[in-house]
Amino acid sequence: MRKTQIVLFLLFLSFSLYGQNYTTDDRKAIKLYQEGEDLVLRRRYDDALEKFEASVKRDENFLEAYKKWAQLLQNKGEMDEALEVAIIGDEKSSAHRDFRADFGWQITNIYVKLGRFEEGIEKFKNSLGYFSSDFKSSASYKAMLEQLKFIEKEMANAKAIDKEKLAVPLNKFHLQYFPVLTADSKRILFTKRDGVERSDHEDIFTSHWEGDEWSMPEALGENINTIYNEGTCSISADGNILIYTSCDAPDSYGSCDLYIAYKINGEWREPINMGEKVNSRYWDSQPSLSADGSILFFSSNRRGGYGGNDIYYSTRLKNGEWSEPINVGESINTKYDEVSPFIYFNNELLFFASNGHMGFGGMDLFNSKIVKGNFEKPENLGYPINDHRDQLALFITAQRDYAYYTENSLKNGVLERSFLYRFAFPREIDLGERLIVTGGKVMNEKTGEPISATLALVNLENDSTMYEFKSEGDSGKFMMIYPDKAFSGLYVEKKGFLPKIYNVEKDSLKNIKGMKIGLKPLASGEQFLFENVFFDFDKAELKPESISSLSRLKRFLEENAQVNIVIEGHTDNIGEHDYNQDLSMRRAESVREYLVENGISKDRLAVKGWGDKKPILPNTNQANRAKNRRIEIVIN
């Protein structure tokens, strides 16, 4: 009885090993194949590959072995080898409809992974007749169909991109990535890493443009780079605010935290952790600071998001602290990963990388327009900016001439080197209004000494601050960004001094290089031009566009409670003298009326109408007459 049971067991075992329907009758080939499957379950992948290869050597028509061999090579990232095996299997499967479908699907996927999109599209179309109706109703089939339609459309509208590897002395390290530049494009910062091992060190390096080449890269400074890992940084347009990532530091709240440092008098001050309001117990990294340093975007895997890594933003409050981060929302963040945000200089476009939106494979680059605080549906930047590889860390210059990025070099699917590249940014991607970058100095008009002043560029149509910068205290130097068509005013302010107010268009600020701004110390008898106060022709009622200057004059008087002023009105010489004097007086009274209505004592406000008696320029042309029509503030 026992002997009979043993015989029956062996027969059952034999049936279980060899009784399945394979495309081979060779028991040795089947045994090798099944040993390979067992090794896969035990994660001995190299040994499994040998078994699958040996099984097809036993029988070169063993289709199951070709399929599993190609799948395992594909899973290991050895795409070229996987494709070679899959093509052999496909060629041998002409009499097997199911395997034609399997290999057609497999080869299509490999072509897409390799970036050989045209071949992938062709193979997919040629395989459609072999796919079953059940498979065509599956989610994976529908996703591939949608992706290939997207790729075919984008390739038909491919952009002309000429990628350029940045020349030596840049790219001299083993890894360099996440490039950012100041608004004048004369300074680049990037993360340098000594190797690909987890233990290899990261630091922030910088280089300066010297007219025809980049200077030798240098570590940013001992205050910034430490024994810990510092990298993925962002810098304000003027180069005076730096936010970067540091991992595993003693004062960190999570695995990687965001830190902020300020450059004062030409030197980087000690950085500080941005605190538990911004940082979390998780990974917070890849910052992007708006041009004026008022909004911070970053990526985090903290709880409460939509997927793996989400993009958040925080705004700088009036007291200098940062707000609680806000998730940018499901229009951008998906159940997958969104990383490397970049807020363009106009604060109207957010670029980022994602593997959760429709793309070419891996991480693609997208942009989203910001309209009234809302993030619109992202757009893929298209081919060949995006391809089958991961695209990350895009940075577009304020001059919109170049886009800088990181390109990785892989070996067997594993990162080997990374380099800094750039390409001329295609004009067909809309970046909004053209921006003009200028610079200058703010000085004490009496002594010539440099002043650390605040410079605010304000949209006069809605009284919104577009950019706010500070001049450097040791040199007075500043940088300013002007949108090409904006109706704007520039306000230069420093406590203890009279403000300087410009109308950007009327004063042609965009055309001035090396602009010198002199601020007068606050003193009796001094005066300043109260620019950006608007009246209709022959009217004394203030227009709404005047609110930017009016509100700042109110604040000036509140901050200097001991100061009394005279509001003086002036006109050009068109019309009768008496009428002009009356008009100038009524306009000055309108300014006083606004201040009184908003809490300033009338006792501090005198008014005077000069009519056309005190022109600052000859009334010989329309431009001069426009400058003569003005309000001036005199310290009483």
Give a quick summary of the entry.
The protein is α+β, with helices and mostly antiparallel strands and 636 residues long. It has twelve helices and 33 strands.
Describe the 3D structure.
The protein is an alpha+beta fold and 636 residues long. Helix content is 26%, strand content 29%. It is built from twelve helices and 33 strands. The strands form eight sheets. Strands 6, 7, 8, 9 and 10 form a five-stranded antiparallel β-sheet that branches. Helix 3 (45-58) runs antiparallel to helix 4 (63-75) and helix 4 runs parallel beside helix 6 (97-114). The model is unreliable at 1-19 (pLDDT under 50).
Blueprint of the fold:
Layout: H1 2-18, H2 27-41, H3 45-58, H4 63-75, H5 79-91, H6 97-114, H7 117-127, H8 133-136, H9 139-156, E1 164-165, E2 175-181, E3 187-193, E4 202-208, E5 218-219, E6 229-235, E7 241-247, E8 256-264, E9 267-268, E10 272-273, E11 284-289, E12 295-300, E13 310-315, E14 326-327, E15 338-343, E16 349-354, E17 364-371, E18 374-375, E19 379-380, E20 392-396, E21 402-411, E22 414-424, E23 435-444, E24 454-459, E25 464-470, E26 477-483, E27 488-493, E28 500-503, E29 515-519, E30 527-529, H10 547-559, E31 565-570, H11 577-597, E32 605-609, H12 622-628, E33 630-635
Parallel strand pairs: 23-29, 31-32
Antiparallel strand pairs: 1-22, 2-3, 3-4, 4-5, 6-7, 7-8, 8-9, 8-10, 11-12, 12-13, 13-14, 15-16, 16-17, 17-18, 17-19, 20-21, 21-22, 23-26, 24-25, 24-27, 27-28, 30-33, 31-33
